[in-house]
């Protein structure tokens, strides 16, 4: 039997025609090449080369062997190319989902990291409502979903991403513009856009209003944060928004005010329980967590000005 190393050495001598040339091709010493050729010929009982004027020529007996060696070497090359493609993400697809608030700014920044590591990786991103995430995972449409809260479900596991806070957003020129923070009582003095008590973020503010027995007036309902920001920018009211939607200047033309009352919340990655995760989705989760934690408020920042997000 010939080892792959013997195949490699015999082929190198055949291609270059000299022991020295084979040694340079394989980046090893010439005596080592010579010894391995002689050892292979002796153990197999076959003479591979005839030496003429310092050059090595295949013997007639070895022609069929060389043909097979070339075939083996081509398969090794094909294997190397396949491994290289896999290493660059080729032949694979990353399928992930996200709720709108995390997909606006955070997911694209994480995907940019993934693309740098796996330049040939196919990527499929789905923007999902909370109620859509369960079927998306359980039916195998994707491997993970970035979530704004965790729920109890026997078929899903939740991994922590990062903490966040809510901010009050106002248009430039508004009475509240230019301030660093605002209280819940002050917020209720103005027409509000988009607070839904059934939404995870809306539930936080609705709870604050209820505890302080504050009445508030919802003039426009809008489900997605980008729509809410556009309505505020148009001067149609003020709103409460999560920090990840507007991180890193994700929506210019509005001003962020920290809310005096605590509004901290947690975000999660949901996966199908028991399903193995691909290397690509593991790296995506790692990247998303890193991006979100760069803007995560520290536990001591409850009374600090809102973080706009650091630039990379």
UniProtKB/TrEMBL annotation:
CDD domains: PBP2_LysR_opines_like (cd08415). Residues 2-59 form the HTH lysR-type domain. PROSITE patterns: HTH_LYSR. Keywords: DNA-binding, Transcription, Transcription regulation. InterPro entries: LysR_HTH_N, LysR_subst-bd, NocR_PBP2, WH-like_DNA-bd_sf, WH_DNA-bd_sf. It comes from the Bacteria. GO terms for molecular function: DNA binding. Pfam families: HTH_1 (PF00126), LysR_substrate (PF03466). Gene3D superfamilies: 3.40.190.290, Winged helix-like DNA-binding domain superfamily/Winged helix DNA-binding domain. Belongs to the LysR transcriptional regulatory family. NodD regulates the expression of the nodABCFE genes which encode other nodulation proteins. NodD is also a negative regulator of its own expression. Binds flavonoids as inducers. PANTHER family: TRANSCRIPTIONAL ACTIVATOR PROTEIN LYSR. This is DNA-binding transcriptional LysR family regulator.
């Amino acid at each position: 039997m010939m080892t792959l190393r013997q195949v490699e050495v015999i082929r190198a001598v055949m291609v270059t025609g000299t022991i020295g040339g084979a040694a340079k091709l394989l980046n090893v010493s010439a005596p080592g090449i010579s010894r391995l050729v002689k050892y292979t010929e002796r153990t197999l009982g076959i003479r591979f080369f005839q030496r003429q004027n310092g050059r090595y020529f295949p013997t007639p007996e070895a022609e069929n062997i060389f043909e097979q060696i070339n075939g083996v070497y081509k398969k090794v090359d094909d294997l190397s190319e396949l491994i290289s493609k896999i290493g660059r993400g080729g032949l694979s697809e990353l399928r992930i989902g996200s709720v709108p608030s995390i997909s606006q700014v955070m997911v694209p920044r994480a995907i940019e990291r993934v693309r740098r590591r796996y330049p040939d990786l196919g990527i499929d991103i789905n923007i999902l409502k909370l109620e859509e995430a369960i079927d998306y995972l359980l039916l195998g449409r994707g491997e993970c979903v970035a979530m704004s809260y965790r729920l109890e479900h026997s078929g899903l596991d939740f991994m922590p991403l990062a903490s966040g806070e809510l901010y009050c957003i106002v248009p430039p020129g508004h009475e509240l513009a230019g301030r660093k923070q605002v209280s819940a009582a002050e917020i209720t003095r103005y027409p509000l856009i988009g607070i839904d008590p059934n939404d995870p973020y809306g539930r936080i503010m609705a709870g604050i209003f209820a505890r302080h027995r504050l009445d508030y007036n919802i003039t426009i309902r809008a489900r997605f944060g980008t729509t809410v920001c556009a309505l505020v920018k148009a001067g149609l009211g003020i709103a409460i928004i999560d920090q990840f939607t507007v991180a890193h200047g994700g929506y210019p033309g509005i001003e962020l005010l920290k809310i005096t009352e605590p509004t901290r919340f947690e975000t999660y990655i949901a996966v199908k329980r028991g399903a193995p995760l691909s290397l690509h989705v593991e790296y995506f989760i790692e990247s998303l967590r890193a991006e979100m934690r760069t803007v995560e408020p520290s536990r001591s920042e409850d009374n600090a000005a809102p973080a706009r997000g650091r630039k990379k």
